[in-house]
Amino acid sequence: MSSDDESNDNLEDSEDDECDDNAATATSSLIDVETSDTDDDDILYQLADPDSPVDWSDQEGSDSSSNADDEGEGSDSQWDDPEWHKNPLSIPRVQFDDVDVLPLTAFVDTDGPFDFFEKFLPADVIKLLVEQTNLYAQQQQTRHWHDVTNDEMKCFLGTLLGMGVHRLPKFKLYWSSDPFFRVQGIADVMPRNRFMKLLNNIHVSDNSTAVPRSDPAFDKLRKIRPLLTIMNSLFQKNAVSTYSQSIDEAMILFKGRSSIRQYMPLKPTKRGYKVWVRADSKSGYVYQFDIYTGKDDSGAGGVGLGDRVVKSLTETLHFTNTHVTFDNFFSSVPLLDYLRTKDIFATCTVRSNRCNLPVIARMNETMARSESKWCTRNSIGYVKWKDTKVVHVMSTAFSPNVTLNVKRTQKDGTSAFVECPQPVAQYTKRMGGVDRFDRSRGHYSISRKAKRWWIRIFYFLIDTAVVNAFILYQSVHPENPTTLLAFRIDLFRRMVCGHSFRRRRSALEGSAFVKYRVDGKKRMKMKGVPDTIRLQPGDHFPVQTSTFRRCRLCSSRTRNKRSKYICAQCNVSLCVAPCFGIFHKH
To answer: Which of 20, 84, 453, 545 is least surrounded, with the fewest CB atoms within 10 Å of its CB?
Structure first.
């Protein structure tokens, strides 16, 4: 019987439409697409800081020759395309950098990290986790289970955050008797067995309402779908939408068996879940995300995967004059036309063998360093620029015939300024939003190895909420900057907040058991046990044993003339005196 965590791998098998020509060796990447056809080969933007001049590393030395303006060039007469021409592009009068990421709700100066994080983990989310976890434990008939409360669930999530900061190979090591491993701040929150029970029973959806796999309404993400929907809504409504955003993919590491797991051999994270993310270009704040579940056979009308992803992630940006940046995996001329009709501006790299591109995109001609060629079509500008490799960029927001002086690091370590078309420089500046988020998410992540396929996505949502809360906190408190480490530590302490779910009792207070115990036909009195005793909830009933075992508490060994008792439930040895009243509880 197959299930989500036992199905075969489903590799990436869908991309945008490409022309059926043999120009597969066309240079369409910022770095090296002549030897690679991956969806993320153009990562020039990673070398630029949005707050400083563009700086690119040199791999093949520098050339002093530059020719950024093609007007009057003899090569312009080599192509004749009725759709593309040399008319200047009409530039929109929109300042894309005027709006910063800010919270939509007002905060006061005394609000700390937990107040910001609580916006992404409100009482509704805690209630959902509590209800579904208790329901799942009842369905599974978990032994020795008592229902989890809201406070205990907060402490559990806070403990996970603390474990992300103080990372150990295994969960059980945090409660180890070895002082090298034991973390007292985590061990004091709740017992190890209780934490493991919560971890094993944590749940988001009701299994009894799941539809069979053969049903057309079957959802591959049904286990985590309620939380995905809530988080997507919270990320968008808790922050102001900026005018400069980027769309890219992120990977959630998972090496188990799942039908939605992807294999990307050229990625740092090769196996896991692919997530489409729309984030702020400058800060990396995540507004929206979508987990890729495999090829869609429902009928997309011939639209490629990249087009569908961008259109889905930009539905809430219609008629907002927002600028989005994405790489050549998503880009196409029809997509830019569609976004322009919705008042969404775009800048992207493009593969030279895409359909509807100008003729010069496929011309394999020799170009000098810093030389560029450009043309326009309606509201789209195309530019082809030679750096160490040939770069193909399209934009509806920046003019291709405008050049900027950008600083570039030479091979000998010196810096030099070269002429670069404006769309290329702006792409470099605005494309790194998702990578900034991914880098922040990797610091002190709570993600752990797990057999359940959806638990890694659950960890991803918690880490994303922490990163978004940290970005909002920094935007409100620019005069008091903090680090992500200090932010997570403060979250851990506030969520635990002095709570302890360890059950403690004094040595003799309330410790009492039945007066007599029947052992076969002989009625034997339990020596050293008070005559009048009362059982408390969770107490264990001691039974007499004739075996010689050491006491769990005082390490004394039983003798022939001394009574010895053992807990009937947990098999803990206890002597009558002085430890008969120190019975531990579950």
So the answer is: 20
